[in-house]
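Review session, final week

We close the course with one last complete record, chosen because it touches almost every idea we covered. It is Cellulose synthase catalytic subunit [UDP-forming], a protein from Frateuria aurantia with 723 residues. Go through it on your own first, then we will talk.
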Amino acid sequence: MCVCPPGGEPDMQMYLDKARRWLLVPGRTLAWVGVAVTALLVISVPADNWDQIVFAMMSLLLCSLLGRSEGDLPRLMMIALSMVSSGRYMYWRLTHTLSFDHIADCVLGIGLLLAETYSFVVLLLGYVQVLWPLHRQPAPLPADPGQWPTVDVLVPTYNEPLELVKTTLMAALALDWPADKIKIYLLDDGRREAFRELCESLGVEYMIRGNNRHAKAGNINAALARTQGEFVAIFDCDHMATRSFLQLTMGWFLRDRRLALMQTPHYYFSPDPMERNLGTFGRIPNEGELFYGLLQDGNDLWDATFFCGSCAVLRRTHLESVGGVATETVTEDAHTALKLHRRGYRSAYLAIPQASGLATESLSSHVGQRIRWARGMIQIFRIDNPLLGKGLTLAQRLCYLNAMLHFLYGLPRLIFLTAPLASLLFGLHVIHTSAVMLLAYAGPHVAMAYMANHRNQGRFRHLLWNEVYETVLAWYILLPTLLALINPKLGKFNVTSKGGLVASSYFDAKIARPYVYLLLVNLLGILAGMWHLYHSPNAGFTQTMWINVFWTMYNIAVTGAAIAAARESKQMRGAHRVEALDMTVALRLPDDTISQARVTDFSVQGMAVETRNYELMPGLQVQLGLSDGHETRFLPAVVVNDRGGSCFGLSYETLTSEQQTWLVNCTFACADQWARRWGTHEAEQPFRSIHGVAMASLRGLGHMLSHFLMPRRRRASLGEGKA
């Protein structure tokens, strides 16, 4: 039974009142106009060199002091300081740093300015989005389960492996909900006989359709026409629900009849390719943690939570009123949420992992998935622009706009990675100013944006590593997003493969190729810069050249780390092992002796246990007693190895479907295993990140050199150009 958090029943008004104390209390238009006018005056006031330097130093000092203070007011003041400092920088760039005397300077200078303007707009929209994360808590259900609504659990699949889908269905079977009020459906667009037989053996409804139109969205819509539950819970076929999923998500629907969507995080227990190849899994937040850990929580304040296609519950009547899941774009989930919001329905976000899944296995698959997301969001921007049309509040429009603009970062990122080369290689001046003035304006802009974002995002994004992640994807999302801007109908839905293996380590030269070229041209820029410095005509020229050299060195570090991400690590486990947290099992030995053992890791194929007072010999037959908190059942297993330190690896013997379901029920369907890992990263430590990215960059250089110095036949045998 879902219980209310300490402090009584959650009340949405309580959350909103807390936010309004800081955000909405001024209330009067005149007060906000006064704040805006003051900010504009500070942004536009002219200053000579020393005045700007003093202003920059005072702003940085104040921002640094606020960063050491606890509470929401210092955090909001840091955001305000950053906005003013960045606004001042952009005003100065527009009014003092452009030259129209030479065509090359003009074109490249405007190009860089447009990239900076894009970054500035995204920065401001990001501040709005995370101004006050809501931190919604679960709402309790009625004490009488007879009052709980009916739910259809939909699991769409197309070409995924049987064992992967089987585990997801077993987790769905463990959902803690009255049996007469829940039905589980496998929606098989692959129309495979083995999957039908699996559903029959598990007692799951098997559903197919006559065509595969509109891919996943069409599959779900076809199921909506043939099911009747008051609510639908949707899980991708690699997302295993926890037992408590419905009990934690359904309460708000009963309190708010306008609520159409409850979204929960997508949590992955396996490393994504960048985490695995860069060795950052468990240490550095991945790119998805910012969205699910902070942005969605921030969206919740503005009633702008996005549907993410899985790990979510939707109210059937509201979903059907907008025509079901959207089919006009390849990001059907976000577009569906936009349609619901336009109708005046509400959404909610619960930042508690209630399902776990598999990340993509290879970098090429990962890139393909992000390409689809990027293209789809730009399609929505073109055909159902959130700035236009009726039904959305201003805050909702801005949240959607930021989500869509984010995926246009490909071109600006590439501009920043090449901009200093204009000066180093060709002697062009894309920013017409002195080095001192550039540092006086750009320094506080960059530094305070970092400090404010570090304060807001520290546990969910490490900014320097995020530069690496975006660099890896920048080249590949550039063309799809630009084409989608021109013609949103171009492109098709591609399925992201999951559950595959990487048979051997190899360097994916095809994926790395754009960044190898970028790295080489930046190295050439460094050599040219050194030559210019040696022949420097004056101090002003030297200062400007040093800025470009340091900028290029930074770009080399980032592109080198991006190349390191293309070194695919071997992955031969058929089932990913998950480190267990405070998990014990009862171990029954052949002589019927039962003792407790601590689980160190588990998978769907086996687990490792740590014993204290005895040793287990390889080949020994044992029984593992797994408990769901109420009941313990024993499963047959065999000791397969001695890991040392009283730790032993065990493999499950042949399990019945019922035993496999119980195994999933007590491991992957246990919410504590995921919730306790959520948001536990330390805030970024800048020097540690610099060191980590630098080391990754050196590894990238090593991988690149060893690959291209290797005989061509040997490269081909190791998988050159896999994608």
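Two points worth writing down before the exam:
The radius of gyration is 28 Å.
The first helix runs from residue 12 to 23.
Good luck, everyone.
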